[in-house]
């Protein structure tokens, strides 16, 4: 009996346990496997609706290092440690004040050309060269630029500066303080002094110091979208005289062409020591408008050596050695800067189909070479 009761008790306990499981009293739920007809939907991150995405914050622009570009020049009061020199601007005079000092310095100094004015900058310079040689320092180791985007060099202001002049040869540790003279456009803003040591060809040697409070200049944004054209690449199909030429770095337009005796007269007026054309040749004076469209924050020069001429004789004529009429096409421009001036080329007397040949110096690729008709 005892064993039977035990069996019945065990059987009852088993039934109760099975009933409990069937009623879901267990707290443990096993995940059910998914069969092949029930695909799970997983949303890839790239498929998340735009409205649910968190927009990424805009990148923080990195400011240009101070003094290495026109967009972030040193302050006028800063002591600037440029390569090989410590430099500080001491005083600045401009316009009538500068002209009075220049006129007093030398009676033969000429008044500024129309539309221009003098700028005097007193500079303190200390040699930081590490060698034992002497090194020259003068106003020609500095340039000036502003919102006309012209790089004004010392050679543009051919005057005797007031005393003390910035002109010395210094050993390491030697110092000098003196005046340097420049020409700038009347009323031009954003003026900066450019530390640009002569014969220092390091790409990062140039330094910029604001002469006007808050001076800052950027490369025009439109330059990046300008593309060179093929007009004038072929000598057999020169560009028309009235067409704008676009190369990798320059835009050019011919404004005027004067040939023969009148061109020789212009050369005589430009400089009494200019020689007349060689026998069998004649001069052609050409007024050219140029715009520098490069996109690096540094100046590029343009002058008459970039031009030659050719025509029906099939000869490439070098430009004659003459002083060009004023204003001469001899300029250094920052990106976006423009200028117009005269050059003189030559042709055989009576030669027809004359073309101006534009070929920048050291352009070994030939990509910038252009032929432009000088005839209607």
Layout of secondary structure:
Blueprint: H1 2-22, E1 80-82, E2 85-94, H2 96-105, E3 116-127, E4 135-138, E5 142-145, E6 151-152, E7 167-170, E8 175-185, E9 192-195, E10 207-210, E11 245-246, E12 250-259, H3 261-270, E13 281-292, E14 300-302, E15 307-310, E16 316-317, E17 331-333, E18 338-348, E19 355-358, E20 370-373
Antiparallel strand pairs: 1-2, 2-3, 3-8, 4-7, 5-6, 5-9, 9-10, 11-12, 12-13, 13-18, 14-17, 15-16, 15-19, 19-20
Structure characteristics:
single chain; four-stranded antiparallel sheet; disordered N terminus; Immunoglobulin-like; 2 domains; 376 residues; mainly beta; 11% helix; 20 strands; 30% strand
């Amino acid at each position: 009996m005892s064993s039977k009761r035990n069996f019945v008790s065990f059987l009852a306990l088993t039934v109760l346990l099975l009933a409990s499981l069937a009623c879901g009293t267990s707290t443990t739920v096993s995940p059910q496997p998914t069969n092949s007809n029930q695909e799970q939907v997983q949303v890839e991150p790239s498929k998340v609706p735009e409205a649910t995405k968190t927009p990424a914050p805009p990148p923080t622009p990195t400011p240009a290092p101070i003094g290495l570009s026109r967009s972030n020049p040193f302050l006028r009061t800063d002591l600037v440690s440029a390569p090989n020199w410590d430099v500080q601007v001491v005083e600045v005079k401009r316009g009538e004040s500068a002209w009075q000092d220049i006129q007093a310095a030398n009676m033969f100094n000429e008044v500024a050309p129309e539309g221009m004015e003098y700028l005097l900058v007193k500079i303190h310079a200390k040699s930081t060269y590490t060698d034992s040689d002497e090194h020259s320092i003068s106003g020609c180791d500095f340039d000036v630029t502003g919102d006309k985007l012209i790089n004004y060099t010392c050679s543009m202001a051919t005057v005797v500066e007031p005393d003390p002049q910035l002109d010395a040869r210094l050993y390491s540790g030697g110092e000098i303080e003196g005046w340097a003279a420049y020409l700038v456009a009347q009323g031009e803003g954003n003026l900066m002094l450019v530390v640009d040591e002569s014969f220092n060809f390091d790409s990062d040697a140039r330094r910029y110091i604001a002469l006007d409070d808050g001076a800052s200049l950027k490369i025009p944004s439109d330059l990046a979208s300008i593309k060179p054209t093929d007009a004038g690449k072929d000598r057999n199909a020169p560009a028309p005289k009235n067409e704008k030429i676009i190369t990798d770095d320059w835009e050019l337009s011919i404004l005027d062409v004067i040939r023969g005796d009148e061109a020789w007269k212009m050369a005589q007026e430009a400089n009494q020591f200019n020689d007349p054309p060689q026998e069998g040749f004649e001069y052609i004076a050409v007024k050219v408008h140029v715009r520098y469209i490069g996109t690096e924050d540094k100046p590029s020069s343009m002058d008459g050596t970039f031009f030659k001429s050719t025509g029906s004789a099939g000869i490439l004529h070098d430009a004659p050695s003459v002083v060009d009429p004023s204003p001469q096409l001899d300029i250094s421009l920052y990106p976006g800067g423009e200028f117009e001036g005269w050059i003189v080329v030559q042709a055989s007397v009576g030669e027809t189909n004359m073309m101006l040949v534009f070929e920048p110096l050291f352009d070994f690729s030939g990509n910038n070479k252009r032929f432009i008709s000088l005839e209607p």
